[in-house]
């Protein structure tokens, strides 16, 4: 989230939500926390998600795989425990993947306003549609945390700044497109599944934020609905 002062097809692929664990398995960060020997409450579910042997018992390799996932998605502590926070992120990924190419199946996002960016807070998904035609997405997003919720309702893109920097948090907000005061679509350099969430903005990957920048214009509609888990 930033101030309003001016300073200055699926691209991500819901079917590829988890990058190869080998990318982070050998990193110093992934090994920073001690690897727990405890069997987690959601051991079987997490093992299944990660493609591990599903026996419901913690092993060294289970722990390393869980720890790598936690490190990649900023889940703390990254100790390799198959607990509720880790499974919550995985379960959300599963539910996002299940949406497929029909994110507005229930018709909640208006189809009578032409080009519109939709944000489903419950599933942490966003997409752009034109009438009933899906133009881009759905893509995973990271919305406002508890106490800084992304506000719901019908809005419009009010202004855009490709190289915006927040004066509130002194944080770069590339590809910013503001639609409700200081709340905007913009890219982040961390996992969009990272907890607990933004300060109200709709965080996206750089690839998706750049695509939104090309597709949306000032005065285009934005519709935000649902409720983010935990808020």
UniProtKB/TrEMBL annotation:
It is an enzyme of class 2 (transferase). Its EC number is 2.-.-.-. Keywords: Transferase. This is L,D-transpeptidase. The lineage of its organism: Bacteria, Bacillati, Actinomycetota, Actinomycetes, Kitasatosporales.
């Amino acid at each position: 989230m930033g101030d309003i002062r001016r300073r200055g097809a699926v691209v991500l692929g819901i079917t590829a939500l988890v990058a190869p664990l080998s990318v982070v398995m050998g990193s110093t960060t992934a090994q920073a926390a001690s690897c727990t020997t405890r069997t987690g409450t959601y051991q079987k579910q997490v093992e299944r998600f990660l493609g591990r042997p599903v026996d419901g018992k913690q092993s060294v390799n289970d722990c390393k795989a869980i720890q790598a996932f936690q490190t990649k998605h900023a889940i703390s502590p990254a100790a390799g425990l198959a607990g509720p926070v880790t499974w919550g992120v995985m379960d959300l990924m599963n539910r996002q993947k299940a949406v497929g190419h029909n994110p507005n199946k229930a018709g909640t996002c208006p189809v009578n306003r032409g080009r519109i960016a939709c944000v489903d807070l419950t599933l942490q998904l966003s997409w752009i549609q034109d009438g009933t035609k899906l133009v881009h997405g759905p893509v995973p997003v990271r919305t406002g945390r508890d106490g800084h919720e992304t506000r719901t309702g019908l809005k419009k893109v009010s202004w855009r700044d490709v190289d915006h920097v927040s004066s509130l948090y002194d944080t770069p907000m590339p590809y910013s497109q503001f639609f409700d005061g200081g709340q905007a679509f913009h890219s982040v350099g961390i996992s969009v599944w990272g907890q607990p969430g933004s300060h109200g903005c709709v965080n996206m990957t750089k690839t998706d934020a750049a695509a939104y920048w090309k597709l949306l214009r000032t005065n285009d509609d934005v519709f935000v609905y649902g409720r983010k888990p935990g808020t």
